[in-house]
Amino acid sequence: xxxxxxxxxxxxPVWSHIREEAxxxxxxxxxxxxxxxxxxxxxxxxxRALAYRFSLxxxxxxxxxxxxxxxxDEAYDSDPGLGQAARADIVAVYDRDPACHRFMQPLMFFKxxxxxxxxxxxxxxxxxxxxxxAYFVQMRVSEAFGVDIHPNARLGKGIMIDHAHSIVIxxxxxxxxxxxxxxxxxxxxxxxxDGDRHPKIGNGVLIGAGAKILGxxxxxxxxxxxxxxxxxxxxxxxxxxxxxPARIVGEAGCDQPALTMDQIIGGD
Length: 268
Hints:
Elements: H1 13-28, H2 33-41, H3 46-58, H4 65-78, H5 80-96, H6 104-109, H7 111-127, H8 131-145, E1 147-149, E2 154-155, E3 160-161, E4 167-169, E5 174-175, E6 180-181, E7 186-188, E8 200-201, E9 206-207, E10 212-214, E11 218-219, E12 224-225, E13 230-231, E14 239-242, E15 247-251, H9 257-260
Parallel strand pairs: 1-4, 2-5, 3-6, 4-7, 5-8, 6-9, 7-10, 8-11, 9-12, 10-13, 12-14
Antiparallel strand pairs: 14-15
Helix pairs in contact: 1-2, 3-4, 4-5, 5-7, 7-8
């Protein structure tokens, strides 16, 4: 007798949780049934739901939903890390944003999360040498979400961009894991110089609203950049900087400022 092999279904707690929340949302608000079914319940995996959202939000008269969907499906199928990063980003938003009460909210409603996932596909295209298509994705993300991330920039996992309005991240910028930033943050250069010219943000950094970090600087792990600051020099790990130009004003206040989102300066 031939040996029978068990057909095990992969365990995906994040996607399972999103689907249960979606079913409850349809029960609570039937008028959103079509919206939630097309965005979540119609799809077999988070990756397929992300690809659908990518194509829906970025399509235009210049590029159809069908073409964009094929691009996104190819990206998720060829690089499992894209889906893993998306799950980490969802958990990051749920854990750090007090306005987020369900895992489904970033996927369906939050443009910061959606912009990051679209950037990740653009970065995948860039790394594969498909640079004009990557630039197209960058352009549409900027137009659709008000978030301008160069496809060559490198972003880690567990990224949370709250409100996500007027975000600019330059070509050679690097953002580590578990970083949180608020609206109107710029990770930019300082002139027309070429080469490696943008900030390097360490793991666990918290960047306040309106902060500008300019030049090829190193922002140390678990540091805090106060709202409205203009950072023009390196920041040591576990410090708080504030002002124009920014200066060290104290310790970071806790071991993981990007997770606590504590932006109050003083009492360190």
